[in-house]
Amino acid sequence: MWLLFICTVALASCSGLIPPEGVEHSAAGADSTDARNHKSAAWRFAVESLLQTPSGGERWEPMYLPGKRFAGFESTERQGRPSLSVAADRSVSILRQRFAPSLTDFGQLAFSWKVDALPEGADLSDTEHADAAVRILLAFDGDRSKWSPRNQRLSEMSRLLTGEELPYATLAYVWSNQGELGSVIVNPRTDRIRKLVVESGVGQIGHWRDYRRDVRADFIKAFGEEPGPLVAVALMTDTDNTRSRLHAWYGPLTLEPR
């Protein structure tokens, strides 16, 4: 089910897998320092202490996309809060956790984040400019027989490229450059990815923002149906389409059982 990230980012959010001109990438998508940091016991302890989900989830792991610069998640403290920081630089940074078997007992999601800027010119409704300084993504299973022929083709393309199908549905909590709070942005390439705007505009840049969301209610608002089992959760900062640079911080995240 981790085509969530390849398809959400590479097929649905990013403009393509071609590296920006003049940018070189390692085979893993991250430099050796990032790779070492993300394997260290201290980093893993910090992540597991900060990101709390029901038992049964796999380890939180970075996700590297081919052809995309990766900016690492660093354990730090910001204004007295433990956090994971990302120094985004025309990059795509994803940290995700899978649930196998999928998670059927979930309720409230609490999370926080802070940014020092938004990607200049970003527009989450436009595939070519669909960057966001911070996102929380949730991927769900469901009945794919309900899909349109277009979504079936996208899923088959994904399976051929990666060996995995698209998740049935992906809900993203986003800080948008524009857009009304509480509005839902349907991804222009597939309606199986929908973004709920929980922060908008530049007014709160530089401030910690805290949220507590009812996952079931938000899924119903976004998709008009009950959510299926949860297969994955992730943090994501991407600035590759707009070629932007910014800093983002993710504070504690808690996904509670119902």
Give an overview in words:
The protein is an alpha+beta fold. It has a single domain, classed as Sandwich (Jelly Rolls), CATH 2.60.120. It has five helices and 14 strands. It has helices spanning 3-13, 32-37, 41-50, 149-162, 215-223; strands at residues 51-52, 61-63, 73-78, 81-89, 92-103, 108-115, 132-140, 169-176, 184-186, 193-200, 209-214, 230-238, 245-250, 253-255. The strands form two sheets. Strands 1, 3, 4, 6, 11, 13 and 14 form a seven-stranded mixed β-sheet that branches. Strand 9 and strand 10 form a beta hairpin. Helix 1 (3-13) crosses helix 4 (149-162). The model is unreliable at 1-28 (pLDDT under 50).
Question: How many domain units?
Answer: 1
- At the first level of CATH, what is the class? Mainly Beta
- Write down how many β-strands occur, each being a DSSP E stretch of 2 or more residues: 14
Multimeric organization: single chain
Our measurement of the CA-to-CA distance between the termini, rounded to an integer number of angstroms, reads 23 Å
Please count the helical segments: 5
| CATH architecture heading | Sandwich
Strand content: 35-45%
